[in-house]
Amino acid sequence: MTQFAKTAKIKSTSSNSASDSSGTTTSGLNLKIMLLNAENLFLISDKTLEEEHLTLDEKKWQKLSTSVFENKPLRKCQILSKIFQEVNPDIVMLAEVGGLESLSNFNRLFLGEKYSAALIEGNSNRSIDVGYLIRKNMGFYFDLVSNKNRPINFLYPHERELVLNGLGEQFKTPSSHKFSRDVAELHLFTKDRERPFLLLLLAHLKSRLDPENIDPNGLERRNAELKTLMEIYLEFEKKWNGKTPIIVAGDFNGNASKHSAELEFKPIYDSTKLSDVCELANLALEDRATYYQVGRHSHVEGRQIDYSFLSPKAAPLLEKESVKIYRYKNHLGQIMDPPTTLDAKNQLPSDHYPLIFELKNIPMID
User: Fold this and answer.
1) Residue-wise pLDDT tens digits, 46-96
2) Number of structural domains the chain divides into
3) Could you tell me how far CA 324 lies from the centroid of its own chain?
4) Whole domain around residue 163: which residue ranges?
5) Lowest mean per-residue pLDDT among 62-66, 276-280, 357-361
6) Separation CA 176–CA 150 (nearest Å)
7) Which CATH number characterizes residue 347's domain?
8) How confident is the model over 235-247, as pLDDT tens digits?
9) Minimal CA–CA distance to 109: which of 44, 22, 17, 178?
């Protein structure tokens, strides 16, 4: 499934003309990119949401929606809006978005429609999708492509047993599962969509939840999704001969770092040359946490589970000093300590922290 959308073709003021070895005219583009699991970003209503609704109290705000999913609290949306204004990203990669309507409403009501919203509904049974916000008037076009129908070559153990033992007529042959959500491809190009100058792959891999007790911690399913994500990436590298910068990012729901990567993420390092932006920037391990697990007796464990990996062609474009995990601030603008209670964690605009980085002088193929 492909969704075509365009930004206005106005050259970015940050562009610098250059030429590659083949004589192709290029422009060096600077992009600030933010990755965020926005935690249940639902903004759905039976009526058109207007600015006047932003003055409502929380009870009246929630009554605007008749969906089974509650709208994201108004206060949290307003905090996220301030963060967007402060960070001022050019491209935002988002997880846990309640569909295109929610993303469009957030862009219109809280971001002044500075962005184009790009999202294709995925496979989530919670209606949480991955999507992008792309700043308008950046001087390029983009295509959005879904992988939601791609098999991940995975069956649960009990399904594999059915196949192994032979299926009776009373059984339906199990077919491979697909991504829990999706891997959304964003192709940036100037004139020819077959010659993108930057490619992004955004995923939200299987969580650790296992309510049916068929895959402890979701490990096998997450591993299958990760392997398929790497397959897509390697297909990209082959198709564009390793000459197009690629970003592979998302909520991986586990430790995918070079340091003590969990088993399901080994294919990143065994089969590719992808590099984590935090690793490239030599960010201290304690500064990489994008999620804090609050346990008993106020025990807090910070973990990086949100990642942006760069291909060998993209890695040299990274402005290493720009890489950081954004820390939420209080009403006085002071950085808040990690939450030590569930109540404190629930007060944050999201249970994940944004990852921010910049790419400099990206060659733009005319």
Assistant:
1) 889 999 999 999 999 999 988 889 999 999 999 999 999 999 999 999 999
2) 1
3) 16
4) 2-365
5) 62-66
6) 9
7) 3.60.10.10
8) 999 999 999 999 9
9) 44
